[in-house]
Structure formats: structure tokens, C-alpha cells
Amino acid sequence: MAAAPVRQRLGPGGTRAQLPPCYYEGYLEKRGPKEKAPRRLWTCLCGNALYFFNNSKDAHYVEKLDLSGFLSLKDDCSRDRNLEAARLILRMKDGETRITAPNLESRELWKGFLYSVIDLNVPSSLTLLPGQLQMLKEVVDKERSRRRSRTPTRAPPSPLSVPLVGEIPPCFRPVSRTEAEVLLERHPDCGNMLLRPGRDGSSLAVTTRQDLNGSVFRHYRVTQRDQGGYVIDVENPIPCATLHDVINALVEKTAGTLQPFLLEEPYEENITYVSANDENGERILHTAPTSPLPKAPALPPKQVGADRWPSSPLTRSPAPDRRLLTSSVPASPTNPMRRLILSPSPLAQSLNEELKVKLEKRRASQE
């Protein structure tokens, strides 16, 4: 029987009626950390836990797997006697659980529902249809509402309830002690030390993780001093001026073994949007085209001073004919062009004067 999303089934006076809302259910083969052979059980994803029943009609579950200790989920590519079966490895804080789905499509859909409930976000790395992605979005919204309704008066602790000195380090995470341990163990390559709110809401804490035949967690209390700054509450208290100094002090004290936890949040690689089908009204998730938008045609460059400068390249004009130049100028003595053309240069004028004097002397000598 293929898995399918269903409404909550209520047994008459049974345990099933007391469970959180069921988001997804179907037959799976499960083998826990201490089990030698897998068992085929009817599996229900109710709230943030997997409930296992002997069959789909049972009202009492035989086993529960709380997903709050989730670490990772990956495909198991080992072969099964059933060639169509697809396996999963669900890694939790208390060990690994191996799950076998009927086929690849069922495995992909189970992964989508599990990630949606655990991360409260629709996964973008799975191969799912638009309708299936819409179902996951509805599950995320329902689970968020369910968790808010369970703790209406409980506010998460925040270091901002007290005035802080300086900037908050990038390794700060608004998580609880248990969530900090899960975060550090799930992402060991991103660092092994993070800053988080304390349980009382008026202090901070540093959670660290190291590997010694398994995960070893340590928690250090950080309080704010009345005179300013902070102090790491250990046997020999370590005063620090800012929260950055708190992190730097732990790095220096451990010779660089402890490193701040810096997790890069995933971002979408494509732009998506939801639109309704005009024919049946079904809402579908679309991916926007990735090709660049067409560029507007470029305007021709503006010709500056077109009335002053010629558009064609400059060429040397032929030498004007002196006869045409002189004949085209009117004979008016007041014409400026005539004065420009016929007025002698100073050198020519001096030569004319000298020649005139010599001619006069010659005439005088001949007389």
C-alpha cells in the first residue's frame, strides 16, 4: 500500500485519538539501533514524532520515535531483495534507524515530510511535484501553529532582556541547551562553540562540542557585571570587556581547539512564485526564467556642438586661387576682408620703404 497524506483517524477510546495531527502515513520497514531484523509497520508522522503500528487499523502504537533528537537523514544505496525498494538512514542522537520505503517516489515524499516537520521549512533540494510541495507547505504551517498553541505563555530566553556591551558575535544562536547540542553535532564542519541565551533569560551561555569516542558537550555560564563587561563563571573567573572577548578568551585558552560556530544559511538558487490555473483554479509553484532580461536599445551618442564642428573628419582644403580670392572681394576700402588681404606685412612695408629711398637717390644722381 503506498503512503498517502490523510486526516487523523480516531480509534474508539484508543491511543490514536490522543496523538498529534497525522501529516503522513504508510507502510515502512524499520530496523532500530538495537534490532537485528527489520519489521514492516504502519508508520504515522504525527506532530514531531513517528508512531509505529502493527497495521493501519490498530489504535495503539507499538513504538514511538521522537524527532527532536534528529541529526541527519541520508539515502542508503545498498541493494535490497526488493529491487524497487528504497532505503533511508535516519540518524538520531541515540543511534541510527534504517527505514525502507516501497519505492523511490515514496522515499522522496517521506523525506519531504520529515524535513518539513523537523526544520519547519519546505525543502528545496528534493524532486517533488508542485502539488506535493503545496502539501508540505500546509504541513509546515500546521506544525508551527501546533507548537505555538502548546506553549502560549512560554517565551524563548533572549540575551536582549539585559543591556549588552558591544556587538553580538556571529556565533550567537537563540537556541536552548539541547538545540545547541544538536546544532553542533549536525554541523561539525562549521565550528564547535556557540553562544546562546541562558535558561534564566538574564545571562548567556557558551556550548562546546568535542569528539572523544563520541560527542562531549560542555556548557559555560557567562554573566554580565554591574561595573560593565562580562565574566566566564568557571573556577577561576575570566573577566572580559565584550562578548567578542568572551569567545576570543575561550579560543586562546584552548590553543585554538574551540572555534566559533558559523553556519551559512541556505539560500534559494532560483526565483519561484505561485499562481492559479485559469482553467481549474489549482495553485501551482513556478520557477522564474533564469535567462537575462533583454536590454533596451542604446541611444545614439549625442553630438555635442554639432553646429560648431563638422561631423566629417577634418581634411586639408586646397589652396585658394589668389585671383579668385582677390576678385571676389568688393573694392570698398572699408571692407574688412579687403584690408585683411591687401594690407602689407611689416617686413614687406620696410622693404618697400628701403627700395623707395634707393630709387630716389638714383634719380637724384642721374639728374
From TrEMBL:
Record region (Disordered): 140-160, 284-345
Superkingdom of source: Eukaryota
Listed Polar residues bias regions: 325-335
SH2 domain location: 163-267
InterPro entries: PH-like_dom_sf (IPR011993), PH_domain (IPR001849), SH2 (IPR000980), SH2_dom_sf (IPR036860), STAP1/STAP2 (IPR039111)
Composition bias, Pro residues: 291-300
A Pfam family reported for this protein in Swiss-Prot or TrEMBL: PH
UniProt source species: Hippocampus comes
Keywords of the record: Phosphoprotein, SH2 domain
Keyword Phosphoprotein: yes
PH domain span: 21-119
SUPFAM superfamilies: PH domain-like, SH2 domain
Molecular function terms, GO-annotated: signaling adaptor activity
Protein name: Signal transducing adaptor family member 2a
